[in-house]
């Protein structure tokens, strides 16, 4: 094809999809990356972090970024790697659990679908634990654990559908009782919950927690697809260090092969720039906007299944498909909650009060039709 035809086709596609988040992307857990992260991404996107001989300094950036993120979840000796998003992190975490001898996967219906997908791919045994108010019920876990034996218990810090946090401490106590380990899926909530609930032990402060998912591409302001797998220590991480004969270093880390330096450098840069204080300020601001939206929604006579603990608002409605499509026609894009009938707004950094007001007034209109 000629260059001008290629450019015109690309422009046509760009016009046909919503490319500006601020215009009305309200359901997705993605947000525009910070310009600093974009610049770092561009500098290193063509280099392979997994070639450790050539790019060892990039792997060092990766380890520093993972350590910093791990420290937010109470870890002090964490290692891990920058993945292609939360799904890969969850897959890698369950793989580690399996390699260390844990074959049962305890999870709830509110866990992200990447958990059951990973259990399926790894031929592990999924065991569904009951919930109480959309959070894992430790009593149900105890009896299932007694009946089925040890496993990896997956808790979620910020459920995708309703924004709840599983009781990580109580679940960890039960896990310890039945010789199990815990994986914390904090893909979204990992950059909110530790700052908004500083007295709760949501991660590695609990002995059985061996790994966590925390996605820089969600609230970290890093570009897609930067995900984070954080592992308690080198020993637990070992099965993810694979032999790779033709590489000069003779090995590579992670589930996949060639890994772009872009997400790694971008994550390091933005994590160092924002730091604990920057992410804490963002977390408080997002929760403030979340409460604002909750109020507005209740003002329309609508209900949420539960008060969310992270910036995810599920608005119950039997006609969720109709609502989602009617709003999309007006340029406001939400998702369905999934777990319960309803539509879901994720209050990401680009979701300002003005955007929430636009959403609420459109929702009012659609509901009155
Ligand atoms: N875990 C949780 C709790 C999530 O909310 C998500 C995505 O929304 C994921 C995992 C999967 O992340 P990704 O879409 O980056 O693979």
Topology (SSEs and partners):
Blueprint: H1 3-16, H2 35-44, H3 52-72, E1 79-83, H4 86-99, E2 104-107, H5 113-121, E3 125-128, E4 131-132, E5 135-136, H6 138-148, E6 151-156, H7 168-177, E7 181-185, H8 193-196, E8 209-213, E9 227-231, H9 234-237, E10 241-243, E11 251-253, H10 261-299, E12 312-316, H11 320-329, E13 335-336, E14 342-346, H12 353-368
Parallel strand pairs: 2-3, 2-6, 6-7, 7-8
Antiparallel strand pairs: 1-9, 4-5, 8-9, 10-11, 12-14, 13-14
Helix pairs in contact: 2-10, 3-10, 4-5, 6-7, 10-12
The protein binds pyridoxal-5'-phosphate.
Identify the notable features of this structure and list them briefly.
7-stranded mixed beta sheet; alpha/beta; 12 helices; 14 strands; globular; binds pyridoxal-5'-phosphate; single chain; 44% helix
Low-confidence stretches: none
Count of separate DSSP helical elements: 12
Q: Give the radius of gyration.
A: 21 Å
Biggest pleated sheet: 7 strands, mixed
Quick check: average pLDDT?
Answer: 97
Shape: globular
- Which bin fits the share of residues in helices? 40-55%
SS-derived structural category: alpha/beta
Oligomer: single chain
From N to C, what is the helix and strand string? HHHEHEHEEEHEHEHEEHEEHEHEEH
Bound small-molecule species? pyridoxal-5'-phosphate
Strand fraction equals 15-25%
Distance between the termini: 47 Å
Order of adjacent strands in the largest pleated sheet: 1-9-8-7-6-2-3
Give the total of beta strands.
14
